[in-house]
Specification:
The complex is a heterodimer of chains A (503) and B (118). Chain A has a domain of 213 residues. Chain A is mainly alpha-helical. In chain A, strands 1-2 form a two-stranded antiparallel sheet. Classes of the chains: A mainly alpha (503), B mainly alpha (118).
Chain lengths: 503, 118
């Protein structure tokens, strides 16, 4: 579609851009209740953008390529917009309530958060390598500043600096990989690259190298081994609301980009009909590469989490491990695999944000992030202790919680693929789940079986209680009745392979 | 496909050859007599004083960054001004939106006190 036609489909993104500016200006004008006003305006625009995306998604059918194929409007892009929207709205609530967010800079922070939502929307829809790179940089640049939000805190500043340096290198490596792919095919649009690869097989060495380099860039965003080194330090140093956002928003966007890149560029579009095996295009061994990274990521994430005593650091390693599980689904190179990744992301959104909300609530009251702050929590604040247990058990993958269904789908997709290599991957994944029980159970044990250091009860304000319940309900309901989400993921994946030409 | 990149390869080889050749010639032909004066950091022929790693205020960076942001704005204005008549009202409105966003930034910078030196 031409630029002028595309704009009418682009209202959600325009709303977000306008919203970011509006928050910035209003924050300059008001003097009282600055944080409240910024959060309300920011939240309103994100909500409007979500509603507009919903109406756009119901208006068009199939795939619409906008701006000469830079971004696409398809059901999967809409699914990810939902995930990003919910993650940002919950983060805005964290920012509003958390004692860690200072009143003075809240306007700038909300501006960044609304702007990063725009970046995430673009990442989820990017179908051109130029747009992929630009949106990734957009999200990264906002993230660097957000990580260093507590300027007076040395750890926060250190986290931001580490993030910048690591991110700069990773995106440089990725753009080099993209230049190789461009050199091989002469195209930047993913659909056109696919057609070019199908028409003539390029040099395997150069193609593999370019895929490896591009994986490095996306792997940095989702914190996959060996590009994960920034993750624990940044998660620990950044303010907790920011950490909670990083662990779901940009991570989900990285997965969206990875799915779109691999399943558009290297899969024959005509093989997307249900029930058939996907046919590879170009011959790059990306399922093998992603599979190896998946195994390494979950193993390192889980084993490194065992010895952590700081809850934020522990959840950082746990989020690395979860990225590993989801990579398994991508490596399976099947429709079912992609569906299971989307389902897992949807579930992970609720259970991980829930766990972080408990961390924020406890930190607000006790100033503690270490595991000792959780000792005897069942006596000091039973409500939070019980819900934390729900979130942790769901993260472990214990029935009847949603995390179990998510893992079940992932393993089912890998096993359905069959063959020695996929069985091995599934066994590694199942062993890793067992390991993860150990460190999640350590927190549960501390909360219920150990005596508290301080006996005084921990206060939990009503908004926190409401938010905790709101996050716990999907975690439980999706575990008992998964079709609520799996129907949506099926629709979302359906149009992924549609041939889009004639931009 | 790859063979069409041969000129790029030749260019890289030529670049390395020229740069490497100059360095090699210099070390082969140039005289070497290192006096203490020649080892000092260069300071316009004057006797050098103080450390070469002097610290100066971060305010300079801030002013430099702001200068670049608003300088680029002018760079966009020139080509627009040349064809402004042809673009008509639509062009005027578009440039107005562009400048409007920049003015918001300007107000932000002003209000935050980034233009104050002290």
């Amino acid at each position: 579609m031409s630029v002028s036609q595309s704009v009418s489909w682009f209202f959600p993104e325009l709303l977000l851009a306008f919203g970011a500016l509006a928050v910035l200006v209003v924050d300059l004008l008001v003097t009282k209740h600055r944080k409240k006003i910024a959060v309300v305006i920011g939240g309103l625009f994100v909500l409007l953008a979500l509603l507009k995306s919903e109406s756009a998604a119901s208006e068009h059918s199939g795939v619409v390529a906008l701006f000469s194929g830079m971004v696409v409007l398809d059901p999967m892009a809409f699914f990810f917009k939902l995930i990003f929207g919910i993650a940002v709205l919950v983060t805005l609530f964290f920012v509003y309530r958390s004692a860690e967010s200072p009143e003075a800079n809240s306007g700038e922070f909300v501006t960044l958060l609304v702007a990063v939502t725009l970046g995430l929307f673009l990442m989820g829809a990017a179908s051109d390598m130029v747009m992929m790179y630009l949106s990734l940089e957009f999200v990264s640049l906002c993230s660097y500043v957000m990580a260093g939000w507590s300027r007076k805190d040395r750890r926060s500043t250190e986290a931001a600096l580490k993030y910048v340096i690591y991110g700069g290198v990773a995106s440089g490596v990725m753009v080099y990989g993209m230049s190789l792919l461009y050199g091989l095919t002469g195209k930047t649009n993913l659909f056109e690259i696919r057609d070019a690869l199908a028409a003539s097989a390029p040099s395997q060495l150069a193609l593999t190298l370019s895929v490896v380099l591009i994986i490095a860039g996306i792997g940095f965003k989702i914190a996959a081994v060996p590009f994960h080194m920034w993750c624990p330090d940044v998660y620990e140093g950044a303010p907790t609301p920011v950490t909670a956002f990083f662990s779901v928003g940009p991570k989900a966007a990285g997965f969206a980009m990875m799915i779109r890149f691999f399943y558009t560029t290297f899969v024959d579009a005509t093989s997307w009909g249900s029930g058939t095996e996907l046919v590879a295009v170009g011959g790059a061994p990306w399922p093998l590469l992603v599979g190896i990274i998946a195994a390494a990521t979950m193993t390192l994430g889980n084993f490194a989490a065992i010895t952590q005593n700081n809850l934020k650091r522990l959840l950082a390693y746990s989020s690395i491990a979860h990225a590993g599980y989801m990579l398994m689904g991508i490596a399976s190179m099947s429709r079912q695999g992609v569906e299971s990744v989307l389902f897992y992301l949807g579930v992970y959104l609720f259970m991980n944000l829930g766990a972080f909300l408990v961390v924020i609530a406890i930190r607000d009251h006790t100033e503690g992030e270490g595991i000792e702050a959780y000792r005897g929590l069942s006596q000091r604040q039973p409500f939070a202790a019980v819900l934390m247990t729900v979130f942790l058990l769901s993260l472990t993958g214990v029935p009847p919680f949603a995390g179990f269904i998510g893992k079940f789908y992932l393993f089912a997709a890998v096993l359905a693929k069959g063959g020695f290599y996929y069985y091995l991957l599934a066994i590694i994944g199942i062993l890793n789940s067992a390991v993860s029980l150990f460190y999640y159970a350590r927190i549960i044990r501390a909360m219920f079986l150990e005596e508290p250091v301080v006996r005084a009860p921990v206060g939990l304000p009503l908004p926190y209680r409401v938010a905790l319940v709101a996050l716990a309900v999907p975690t439980v309901v999706l575990g008992i009745f998964p079709p609520l989400l799996s129907d949506l993921t099926q629709v979302s994946v359906g149009a992924l392979g549609v041939v889009t030409t004639g931009f | 496909m790859l063979s069409s990149y041969l000129p790029v390869l030749l260019m890289i080889v030529a670049g390395i050859a020229v740069a490497g050749g100059m360095l090699a010639l210099k070390s082969l032909l140039g005289p070497r007599n290192a006096t203490p004066e020649k080892q000092k950091p260069f300071e316009c022929g004057r006797e050098s004083t103080g450390s070469a790693h002097a610290r100066f205020s971060i305010k300079f960076y801030l002013v430099a960054l702001l200068f670049i942001a608003f300088d680029i704005e002018i760079v966009f204005l020139y080509p627009w001004a040349v064809v402004a008549k042809g673009l008509g009202v639509v062009g005027l409105v578009q440039m107005g939106v562009f400048l409007g966003v920049l003015v918001l930034g300007f107000i932000y910078v002003w209000k935050k006190g980034a233009l104050e030196w002290d």
